[in-house]
Design a protein that fits this description.
The chain is an alpha/beta fold and 250 residues long. Helices cover 42% and strands 15% of the residues. Belongs to the short-chain dehydrogenases/reductases (SDR) family. FabI subfamily.
C-alpha cells in the first residue's frame, strides 16, 4: 500500500522544512520527485541529493507559484521530462507578519496569491498530466482557524486554501482524483524563525500538546504518505490536523 514505485510527485516549496520532508518520505517509498523552489537553490539541490541517494530521480525547477507564467513553464518542463504527474503537493507559502491594522493591499494580495490562489493555478495546469487515482495535498496551518499574533494575512489565506480544497474535491472527485489538506501544528522550521515571538510559540505549543512533544516535518510527511496511498482512497476534501492534540486544547 505504501509501495509507490514509479509514480511522480511535485512538491512546491520542496527545498526545506515540511516540503523537503515530504519529498524524502515519498522518495523512500519509490516515487520520483520534482522539487519546486524560488530562492534557495542550494537547499533544493540538497533535497535532490537526498532523494537521489534513495535511488530515485529528482528534478529541481525554479518557479514562483504565484505567477501564472512560471507555473505554465514549470508544467511544460514536467510534461517533457516525465509525461505524467501522480501527486501534487502545494506547500510553498509566504506572508507578511504584521498586525491586521498595519496591512496594505500588497501584503494581502501577496499572501493570497502564494498561499491560496497558487493551488488553483497548479491544479488547472497540472490536471492534463493527472489521471484517475492522482493525489493533491495542500499544506495548511492552525492559523486558518485560530487567531495568532501578526498572522492575519497567512491565516486568512490558509483559510481560503482549505475552502478551495473542499470546492475542488467536489469537482475532481468524479475524475477519481483525491484532494485533501494537511494542517500542521507548531513546527520548528525556518519559516517560524521569522516570528519575533518564536520561542514563546514553541514553548506554549509544547506545554499544551497532550502527546508531549512538538510536531516535526517528518510527522507531517507521514500523513502526506498516507494520503498518497490506497489506504486513503475514501478520504476526500478533508483537513487532517497533525499537531499531537495541540488544537483540541482551545
Amino acid at each position: 500500500m505504501f509501495h509507490l514505485t514509479g509514480r511522480v510527485a511535485l512538491i512546491t516549496g520542496g527545498s526545506r522544512g515540511i516540503g523537503r520532508a515530504i519529498a524524502i518520505r515519498l522518495a523512500e517509498h519509490g516515487m520520483d520527485i520534482i522539487v519546486n523552489y524560488v530562492r534557495h537553490r542550494q537547499d533544493a539541490q540538497d533535497t535532490a541529493t537526498a532523494v537521489e541517494a534513495l535511488g530515485r530521480r529528482c528534478l529541481i525547477i525554479k518557479a514562483n507559484v504565484a505567477k501564472q507564467e512560471d507555473v505554465e513553464a514549470m508544467f511544460a518542463v514536467i510534461s517533457t521530462e516525465f509525461g505524467s504527474l501522480d501527486v501534487l503537493v502545494s506547500n510553498a507559502a509566504s506572508g507578511v507578519l504584521k498586525p491586521a491594522l498595519e496591512l496594505t493591499e500588497r501584503h494581502w494580495n501577496w499572501a493570497m496569491d502564494i498561499n491560496a490562489r497558487a493551488l488553483l493555478t497548479l491544479v488547472q495546469q497540472g490536471l492534463p498530466l493527472m489521471g484517475g487515482g492522482a493525489r493533491i495535498i495542500a499544506v495548511s496551518s492552525l492559523g486558518s482557524v485560530r487567531a495568532i499574533e501578526n498572522y492575519t494575512t497567512v491565516g486568512a489565506s490558509k483559510a481560503a486554501l482549505e475552502s478551495l480544497v473542499r470546492h475542488l474535491a467536489v469537482e475532481l472527485g468524479p475524475r477519481g482524483i483525491r484532494i485533501n489538506t494537511v494542517s500542521a501544528g507548531a513546527v520548528d522550521t525556518d519559516a517560524l524563525k521569522k516570528f519575533p515571538n518564536r520561542d514563546e510559540i514553541l514553548g506554549t505549543a509544547l506545554q499544551r500538546t497532550p502527546l508531549g512533544r512538538l510536531t516535526t516535518p517528518e510527522d507531517v510527511a507521514d500523513v502526506a504518505l498516507f494520503l498518497c496511498s490506497n489506504l486513503a482512497d475514501m478520504v476526500q476534501g478533508q483537513v487532517i490536523t497533525v499537531d499531537g492534540g495541540y488544537a483540541i486544547r482551545g
